[in-house]
Amino acid sequence: MKIEEIKNLLREELYDVLEKERINDLRPAQEKAIKSGLLDGKNLLVCTPTASGKTLIAEMAMLNTILSKGGKAVYIVPLKALANEKYNDFKRKYSHLIRIALSIGDFDSADSYLMDYDLIITTCEKLDSLIRHNAPWISMVRVVIIDEIHLLNDFERGPTLEILITLLKQVLKRVQIIALSATIGNPNVLAEWLNAELVIDNWRPVKLKKGVLHDWEIKFFE
Fold first, then answer.
1. Smaller CB count within 10 Å for the chain: N or C?
2. What is the model's pTM?
3. Residue 52 to residues 11, 27, 55, 137, 152, Cα–Cα distance (Å)
4. Number of structural domains, the chain?
5. What is the CATH number of the domain that holds 162?
6. Residue 15 domain-assigned?
């Protein structure tokens, strides 16, 4: 699918950025996401390989909603390093359109200054803390992106993430949840729990090959 085919579904400002980034063709997962209701506010669970275009799916949902309807978007990542990476990337692309904040620090603060920002990148532990401190802007969140949602199975971060998602579903009745992962063992069950459409695709930009290394020589399987 060509990006110009969905031009009428995207805010003009967002479309201009995608053109500037030389995004001409949508990848299979991105096309499936749009057909599954990405731009209509539907919850989605996107399970596709690394580098298959999941972040752009999130960007289209967040920017289109912020620019069209107002409110805020929250992008949840498991690690501070990844939060910094996303913050820098989103600032480069979208700082002329929306106000972007990084919140990964003090767990004993409601960070009321975030009221002035449109997109907030944070970790699940920090967002859990913000909700428990009754951050006044939480009710303004319209889109939540959960990156690496397969960490629900992680014995350290899993319980916090599960409780966080449960809280978000209770507190934000009209929020759109976009969950992203490269690998999920039970995608249908998770999609049902999230009340989300399931988007699965196996396309990847570089084909994977399997092989065995022996005596410093790799023999690839056919």
1. C
2. 0.90
3. 23, 7, 9, 33, 21
4. 1
5. 3.40.50.300
6. no
| Element of type H or E holding 132 | helix 124-132
Q: Is residue 198 part of a domain?
A: yes
Tokens of residue 193, six digits: 């729990």
Residue pair 161/10 in contact by the 8 Å Cβ criterion = no
Nearest to 1 by CA among 27, 22, 21: 27
Whether 14 maps to a domain, the answer reads: no
> What is the sign, positive or negative, of the torsion defined by CA atoms of 30, 119, 72, 78?
positive
Q: How many CB atoms lie within 10 A of CB 126?
A: 23
> Residue 46 is part of which domain span?
28-204
Whose CA is closest to 128, among 173, 176, 166, 72?
166
Euclidean distance between CA atoms 92 and 133, whole angstroms: 31
Per-residue exposure over 155-167, b if at least 16 CB sit within 10 Å of its own CB, e if not: eebeebbeebbee
For position 21, what pLDDT does the model report?
Answer: 93
* Per-residue pLDDT tens digits for 12-62: 999 999 999 999 999 999 999 999 999 999 999 999 988 889 999 999 999
Q: Residue 63 pLDDT > 80, yes or no?
A: yes
**Distance (Å, rounded) from C-alpha 184 to C-alpha 192?**
13
Question: Beta strands 141-146 and 211-214: pairing type?
Answer: unpaired
